[in-house]
Amino acid sequence: MNPWLNISLSDTVADCDKPVINSLTTAVKSKIVLDTLPEPYHGNPEAKVYLLNGNPGHSEKDLTFVGCGNAIQAASVLPNGNNAFSNIYEKEICEELWHINKEFIWLRDPETVVNAIGESHLGYRWWKDRVRELKKACGCEISEKVFCIECFPYHTERKMAFKLPSDEYVDGFIYRAMEEEKVIVLMRSRREWFARIKGLENYSNLILLNSCRNVSLSPGNMTKSDWEKLVKSL
């Protein structure tokens, strides 16, 4: 069952993760940003290309999107029990969490998640920069052609990775992707992903980037054969 059905701006931790998060020391818990919505995955689970990343980062500007905008009435009761979304930020993230919208939020146009002064969320720029060359090579929109999974689902300024009950849900997607021989690009948290997903390290359709710091999906950041495989898969 999808563990993210309870999520809203007033409830930003998956119910199954709460015992683990609440048991953390104050020092560790303070490093997890719980004022913004979690981003465990983005895009289309049925996509032929999977991207395994580290965790959603954080900047102070992210908080300017939390309380910005008007409520949006829902057509029916939402999975979290509410009758409306707090704002467009909550709507876009939650609809992706619930697989209502399978288009990668930060690759979409137009950019709908903006703050009170009209600035787009930083997620758009970060992700569009990373896929610019791939999109150009494919000659098409790729927002519904990839599925990204974060190793740690909650926002932090620095890398964080430890086992959470909600991992089981996304791990199931990865194992099914391997069974179906989909292309998997390992962007960040290589050691953690190899320890977590049995068989991933030796998976035949795994693409490793040359740099785990610069995680652009570009021909200069992987082997020629891997680049050709990636482009062909899209």
Structure description:
The chain starts with 17 loop residues before the first helix and ends with a helix. Strand 8 (183-186), helix 6 and strand 9 form a beta-alpha-beta unit. The chain contains seven helices and nine strands; from the N terminus they run ααβββββααββαβαβα. The protein has helices at residues 18-23, 26-29, 88-97, 122-138, 167-179, 190-196, 224-233; strands spanning 32-33, 41-43, 49-53, 72-73, 84-85, 146-150, 155-156, 183-186, 206-208. The protein has 234 residues and is an alpha/beta fold. The protein has one domain.
What's the alpha carbon Rg, rounded to whole Å? Answer: 17 Å
What's the overall geometry? globular
Describe the sheet with the most strands: 5 strands, mixed
Number of domains: 1
Strand content: 5-15%
The percent range for helix content is 25-40%
Q: Taking all residues together, what is the mean pLDDT?
A: 97
Q: Topology as H/E string? A: HHEEEEEHHEEHEHEH
Unreliable runs: none
Alpha carbon gap, first and last residue: 29 Å
DSSP strand tally: 9
Contiguous helical run count: 7
Class from helix and strand fractions: alpha/beta
Strand order across the largest sheet: 2-6-3-8-9
What labels would you give this structure?
five-stranded mixed β-sheet, alpha/beta, 234 residues, two-stranded antiparallel ribbon
How would you summarize the topology of this molecule?
Layout: H1 18-23, H2 26-29, E1 32-33, E2 41-43, E3 49-53, E4 72-73, E5 84-85, H3 88-97, H4 122-138, E6 146-150, E7 155-156, H5 167-179, E8 183-186, H6 190-196, E9 206-208, H7 224-233
Parallel strand pairs: 3-6, 3-8, 8-9
Antiparallel strand pairs: 1-7, 2-6, 4-5
